[in-house]
Design a protein that fits this description.
The protein has nine helices and 14 strands. It has 288 residues and is an alpha/beta fold.
Length: 288
């Protein structure tokens, strides 16, 4: 067995520079053996900053020349399918930043390639791994809140990337729903243990962009009689950025950001998370 997992990163944008490279650099069981990026200036700068010896503008050459166990793909969405399938055919395990691909057909190609080559593929739905989200999931699983019948969630902030491709549907696949909404919905459905969807009603708004939605509001009915309401926006004119999620159960309610949980005992409403940390700083990095 190897002492270290040999990881390569394809795409050196914000999430690679701010999250993946700094965190992986601190893990003793990991070695960042190579990076790939089409922008030569960025490639040189980032490789030097994180002391990565093998730097390539062509990821196919990187996979041929370097011994790699797993690859992180953090490139524009429209490139995910081709890169992922190529890596999987080279027997490399993958972490693909969300969204996994432009559409269902491309996603299925990745899934089929993973099964064919017996490789693991994970999508970067990091909110499941926030400490507060995992604690809320534990409370729900323990039955403290009773059966969850309603989740209300929302996220408003500026879009996650200023790069030009992010505003083109052909390259990004969509707008705020694929940037913020997909993470909210994944978290909410995970907390509910993925019941089947009965119906979806949603309204997208195109105030800032013509081809991609910048706000979206939706209501989802699930087969177990629970319901889910979401709102996401890059363009709500609020005072501050906001992320919120509330899970309403028959016995109590759990909130995220910060984590709070309440239930009725006798005639009193009791906060049984008052002893836990309510700090929300750095939860994004902690989730990775």
């Amino acid at each position: 067995m190897k002492d270290k997992t040999r990881i390569a990163i394809i795409g050196l944008g914000g999430v690679a520079q701010l999250v993946h490279l700094p965190i992986l650099s601190k893990i003793n069981s990991v070695e960042i053996v190579a990076v790939s990026e089409v922008n030569k200036t960025r490639l040189k700068t980032v490789a030097e900053k994180f002391n990565v010896k093998n730097a390539f503008t062509d990821y196919t050459k990187m996979l041929e020349d370097v011994d790699i166990d797993a690859v992180i793909i953090s490139t524009p969405t429209n490139t995910h399918r081709d890169i992922a399938v190529y890596c999987l055919n080279k027997k490399k395990h993958l972490l693909i930043e969300k969204p996994i691909a432009i559409n269902y057909e491309e996603t299925k190609e990745i899934d089929d390639a993973a099964k064919k080559n017996k490789c693991n593929v994970m999508v970067g739905m990091n909110f499941r791994f926030r400490p507060d989200t995992m604690l809320l999931k534990s409370l729900i699983n323990s039955g403290e809140l009773g059966d969850i019948f309603y989740i209300k969630c929302g996220w408003t902030r500026k879009q996650s990337s200023e790069q030009k491709w992010f505003n083109k549907k052909s390259l990004a696949g969509g707008g705020v729903v694929l940037d913020l909404g997909i993470v909210l919905l994944d978290t909410a459905l995970w907390l509910l243990n993925y019941p089947k969807v009965k119906s979806v009603s949603a309204q997208n708004f195109y105030h800032a962009h013509h081809s991609i939605e910048d706000s979206s509001v939706g209501f989802i009915r699930l087969n177990n009689s629970s319901v889910l309401n979401y709102e996401v926006s890059w363009s709500f004119h609020d005072e501050t950025d906001s992320f919120k999620l509330a899970a309403y159960g028959k016995e109590g309610t759990g909130h995220l950001n910060p984590l709070k949980a309440y239930k009725k005992i006798a005639s009193n409403r009791v906060d049984f998370t008052s002893g836990s940390s309510s700090q929300t700083k750095n939860l994004f990095k902690k989730s990775y």
